[in-house]
C-alpha cells in the first residue's frame, strides 16, 4: 500500500483515490475480534441462513474502515485528522466480495485546512455505502 501525504495546498476539488479489498472469512473473523462485534450474522452460517440475507455478511463498519484507510494513507494521507463522517449503508457486503472504496475531494475550506470528502464503497460497480467525511489536512511548513 502506498502511503503519502498530500498537504492542503496540494488538494483540489475532484481529486480522487481508491482502495480495493476482497472480504475473506478471515477478514470478518479478525474484524469481529478487534471490534468486539460478534453478532452471529457475521460469524455463524446457521444463524445467517435464517436472516433476510441468507448468508453471513461483513460488518458495515469494516466496509466503512476502508474509507478511513484511504483518508489515512492516500487522500490526504498521514497527518489528516478526522473531524466527522456520515454513512448510509445501501446493500450488504458478503464474504468473497471485492469492495472498492472511493474518496473524492468535494470542497476545500481555507480556514482550518478543512476538506469535505465524498465517500463511497462499491461492489461490482454498485454502491453499498455512501457518505461524507470532513477532515483537517496538514499544511506545508513555512520555509
Automatic annotation (TrEMBL):
Domain of life of the native organism: Bacteria
**Gene3D superfamilies registered for this protein in UniProt:** Hotdog Thioesterase
Quote the InterPro entries the UniProt record gives: Fatty_acid_synthase, HotDog_dom_sf, MaoC-like_dom, UPF0336/Enoyl-CoA_hydratase
The UniProt record lists the MaoC-like domain at 19-107
PANTHER family, sorted = HYDROXYACYL-THIOESTER DEHYDRATASE TYPE 2, MITOCHONDRIAL, HYDROXYACYL-THIOESTER DEHYDRATASE TYPE 2, MITOCHONDRIAL-RELATED
What's the protein name? Answer: MaoC family dehydratase
Species assigned in the record: Alsobacter ponti
Amino acid at each position: 500500500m502506498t502511503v503519502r501525504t498530500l498537504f492542503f495546498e496540494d488538494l483540489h476539488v475532484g481529486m480522487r483515490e481508491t482502495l480495493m479489498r476482497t472480504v475473506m472469512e478471515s477478514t470478518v473473523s479478525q474484524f469481529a475480534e478487534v471490534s468486539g462485534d460478534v453478532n452471529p450474522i457475521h460469524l455463524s452460517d446457521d444463524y445467517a441462513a435464517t436472516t433476510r440475507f441468507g448468508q453471513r455478511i461483513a460488518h458495515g463498519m469494516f466496509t466503512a474502515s476502508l474509507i478511513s484507510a484511504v483518508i489515512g494513507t492516500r487522500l490526504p494521507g498521514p497527518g489528516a485528522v478526522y473531524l466527522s463522517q456520515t454513512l448510509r449503508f445501501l446493500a450488504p457486503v458478503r464474504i468473497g466480495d471485492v469492495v472498492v472504496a472511493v474518496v473524492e475531494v468535494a470542497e476545500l475550506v481555507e480556514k482550518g485546512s478543512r476538506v469535505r470528502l465524498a465517500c463511497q464503497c462499491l461492489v461490482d460497480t454498485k454502491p453499498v455505502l455512501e457518505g461524507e467525511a470532513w477532515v483537517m489536512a496538514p499544511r506545508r511548513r513555512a520555509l
